[in-house]
Amino acid sequence: MCGVVGIWGHPEAAKLTYLGLHALQHRGQEAAGIVSAHPDQPFTRHVGRGLVSDIFGKDALARLDGPHALGHVRYSTTGLSETVNAQPFRVKTARGELALAHNGNIVNEQEVRTDLEHRGSIFTTGSDTEVLLHLLAHSRAPRLADRIREAAAQVEGAYSLVLLTDSALVGVRDPSGYRPLWLGRVGEAYVLVSETSALSLIEGIQIREIEPGEIVTITDKGVHSERLVHDPNAPAQSCIFELVYFSRPDSFMFGQSVYEARFDMGRKLAAESPANADVVIAVPDSGIPAALGYADASGIPYKPGLIRSHYVGRTFIEPEQSIRNFGVKLKLSAVRAVLEGKRVVVVDDSIVRGTTSRKIVKILRDAGAVEVHIRISSPPSRFPCYYGINTPTQKELIAAKNSVEEVGDYITADSLSYISLEGLHQSVGDLSIGDPHFCNACFSGNYTAGAPTIRSRLAIVH
Ligand code: AMP
User: Fold this and answer.
1) Residue 316 beta carbon below 6 angstroms from any ligand 1 atom
2) Fold for the domain defined by 3-236
3) SS3 450
4) Which of 101, 177, 179, 336 could form a disulfide with 236, with the two C-beta atoms 3.0–4.6 Å apart?
């Protein structure tokens, strides 16, 4: 889970990249970086740990000059959370400088890494992105797009990539299109971004989503598109969890509005799992669009029964269990005036370990709720994601080993229901679950790009 911004041909490329990264901050809060480029001059790079606003001061941004830039926010899926793993990576190759930013996860990373090591590669990080860089460096193909094609043929998994060289900005989406990537414009400049929220912030216009299996090369001459693989009929397997939880609701992604997809999930959930209740509330912020949909379809009024403090980050993302545990209380507080004496439906997007929901039920009862009915706008999360969403191991996923009833008992809810897998697919426009256009491996265990070998799995550090 990461976010990328690339800009080609703007006098303030790094500053726009910095602003764009702010609009992608939800995609990773562990580290961030920007590489900027002037024609025929060495690239400039600045990376650090933490939030975008903490990493880039006035001085750093002033040093990042040049008309081209590439930025990244990181949320570790593979590799330790150290600055050395912060992206974009930047290397000097025989053909000039190259910077690379990656959103996704390579599942056969360990095998490819070992093979490269046997061929003489020396790695400096634990990141799967460095494996991609070495594959590109090993290729003898004259064109960058051909080198990308050769590298892609050796890796499996999820990758939306943006590369910056002296002469081009290049965007790539893996053939299944797991992770998003957009092409846009700001004035005369071209932009590549993970989500349209970044384009809106820099007052850019949306051109189109990069297609699954497409390579887009942006140069001073314009935009050139070619295929990564020659299989236009291969079905897309975009990540359904981007629409459930991860992306920002003001973004447009995989051909739809993220807000509308979530609203529809809530409507579907209300039809599938009604509740006798006085009020619908959301777990803010991620549960709000689905709660509005639930209220719309059920006729039960929506009210803000929980308030989120915006001054603490997403606790799940913090690697330490101890931080996560008191995080819920730091972040959420109940509105007694909404809850007292009421039968409450609480809508959230997902239950991972169950710790958040359990604490929320307690907070709501303490504030006077007489019944608490939990409704979840995704099916039970039973399987880890190997394609770029940071999920815990399977044994930590509460729904992996427990029935819905047992999860409901653990979180002490009066009732618990999840949306069905069919209902979820319908909410995002998949009419038949037999022919899905979305990856649902976290719910079904159906890993369409394969699961990592035990060796690679052990290397995935959460
Ligand atoms: P838990 O307490 O582990 O059950 O966490 C559940 C909460 O984590 C839900 O409110 C979700 O909004 C949120 N969540 C779900 N998946 C993720 C993820 N991959 N990263 C961060 N937060 C998540």
Assistant:
1) yes
2) Glutamine Phosphoribosylpyrophosphate, subunit 1, domain 1 (3.60.20)
3) coil
4) 177
Report whether 230 contacts 236 (CB < 8 A): no
293 HSE (CA, 13 A, CB side):
29
Q: Report, as residue numbers or ranges, the catalytic residues.
A: 2
Per-residue pLDDT reduced to its tens digit, 90-147: 999 888 999 999 999 999 999 999 999 999 999 998 889 999 999 999 999 999 999 9
Q: Does residue 382's CB lie within 6 angstroms of at least one atom of ligand 1?
A: no
Residue 432 confidence class, pLDDT cut points 50, 70, 90: low
140: exposed, middle or buried (C-beta count within 10 Å: 0-12, 13-18, 19+)? exposed
Q: Atom of ligand 1 at shortest distance to CA of 392?
A: 19
Res. 314: pLDDT tops 60: no
Ligand 1 binding pocket includes 352 (Cβ within 6 Å):
yes
Contacts of 320 (CB under 8 A, 6+ apart): none
Residue 322: pLDDT above 90?
no
Extents of the domains making up the chain: 3-236, 260-431
Closest residue (by CA) to atom 5 of ligand 1? 352
81: which residues sit within 8 A by CB, 6+ positions away?
A: 30, 31, 49, 319, 461
Nearest residue CA, atom 23 of ligand 1?
A: 316
367 DSSP assignment: T
pLDDT band (50, 70, 90) for residue 252: very high
Q: Say if ligand 1 is within 6 A of residue 314 CB.
A: yes
350 lines ligand 1 (CB under 6 A): yes
Atom number, ligand 1, closest to the C-alpha of residue 356: 2
389 lines ligand 1 (CB under 6 A): yes
> Domain 260-431 classified CATH 3.90.226.10?
no
Distance 150 CA to ligand 1 centre (A): 36
> What ligand 1 atom has the least distance to the C-alpha of 354?
4
Least confident segment among 26-30, 254-258, 292-296, 458-462: 458-462
